[in-house]
Design a protein that fits this description.
The chain has about 325 residues and is mainly α. It has one domain. It contains 13 helices and no strands. Helix 3 runs antiparallel to helix 4 and helix 7 packs antiparallel against helix 13. The longest helix has 27 residues. The two termini are about 15 Å apart.
């Protein structure tokens, strides 16, 4: 879990560093890192479709618990297999980060998908970088520079056009869930950097424990409200494997492998492609259609993402500190 941009080569982890162990098992070169980045972008892009299919066979709260536990078990399996430190270094860190990145982010994403289109939801969730800039400004005292303010303004304008808060029809609630998901994702990323200012956590251990801590309160919901169990089948099991094991668990291992060879600014450019893949595939598979105002809003959000990503890339080349890099928990 990166706390800032790093430079390939000189900025990469030493091969003796145990935190880089998963990376060495997956990616061995810079060229391999670019291939892994393409694979990861596709995994996360189509993850939104997979979640939408899963929700056709399960209640949102139940599906969220099952897919998260699938990811948790896979991550702990790797943790144990590699004989890495098992217990977390800071219970406070995993509980705070887990609340935002798993309880809020995962829970809100699933609720948004249950009532809205996969493409529209992914775009709203991926307002995360803009929330990160604002939260890091308040919590970490990290300056938001001129061009970043332009990106934030474009994103906020895009949010208004996509969410359309003046329209209180049935489509407003899932949009608000999606925005809350992006906010939770951003708050979790800032919390990660906050706790890493004084110590460095093993990234695999940290993610596994914060995800486990975050899913515990969600696990109570299906029992507390007597929700119907999922319609289990081979198809549903494969969906959980894709969403939990491949997209989340393997996705994280690919991400730290990529960051071990590429600058964070370069790697984070993939964020722009993920909602595009989700939106286009959702239009083809689910016949999702957007109004003109929503397209205008998406264009504003996309433009803001381009500015943020370009700024992060330039900053990583100049070794300038930037806002925290997104962690791969929910398709991006």
């Amino acid at each position: 879990m990166s706390s800032g941009p790093r430079r390939a080569g000189a900025g990469a982890r030493s091969s003796a560093d145990p935190a880089a162990a998963p990376a060495r098992l997956i990616v061995h070169s810079r060229r391999g890192a670019y291939i892994a980045l393409v694979i990861l972008t596709l995994l996360w892009g189509f993850n939104w479709l997979a979640m939408k299919f899963g929700l056709e066979r399960s209640h949102p709260a139940v599906f969220n618990v099952e897919r998260t536990w699938a990811a948790v078990l896979a991550l702990f399996a790797v943790l144990v297999a590699q004989r890495r430190p098992f217990w977390p270094e800071s219970w406070l860190a995993v509980m705070v980060t887990g609340f935002f990145q798993t309880t809020i982010n995962f829970g809100s994403t699933t609720m948004a998908l249950a009532g809205g289109g996969a493409g529209r939801t992914s775009v709203l969730v991926f307002t995360m970088p803009f929330w990160t800039l604002l939260i890091a400004w308040v919590v970490l005292r990290e300056r938001v520079r001129g061009v970043q303010w332009l990106a934030v303004a474009m994103a906020l304008a895009g949010l208004v056009l996509v969410v359309q808060p003046w329209d209180w029809s049935g489509s407003l609630v899932p949009k608000l869930w999606a925005v809350l998901s992006g906010f939770g994702w951003a708050a979790g990323s800032v919390a990660t950097k906050y706790f890493q200012r004084e110590r460095t956590f093993d990234p695999l251990n940290y993610l596994a424990w914060q995800m486990a801590a975050g899913v515990l309160p969600l696990t109570v919901l299906p029992f507390a409200f007597g929700l119907e169990p999922s319609q289990w089948s081979i198809t549903y099991a494969l969906i959980l494997v894709y969403v939990g094991v491949l997209s989340t668990a393997l996705g994280f291992l690919l991400w730290i492998a990529i960051l071990n060879h590429l600058p964070a600014g370069t790697a984070s450019l993939n964020m722009m492609a993920i909602p595009v893949i989700a939106l286009l595939s959702s239009m083809v598979v689910f016949d999702e259609r957007l109004a003109a105002a929503e397209w205008a809003g998406i264009a504003c959000i996309g433009g803001g993402l381009v500015i943020v990503s370009a700024y992060g890339y330039v900053a990583s080349r100049r070794h300038v500190a930037t806002a925290p890099v997104a962690t791969p928990l929910d398709g991006g």
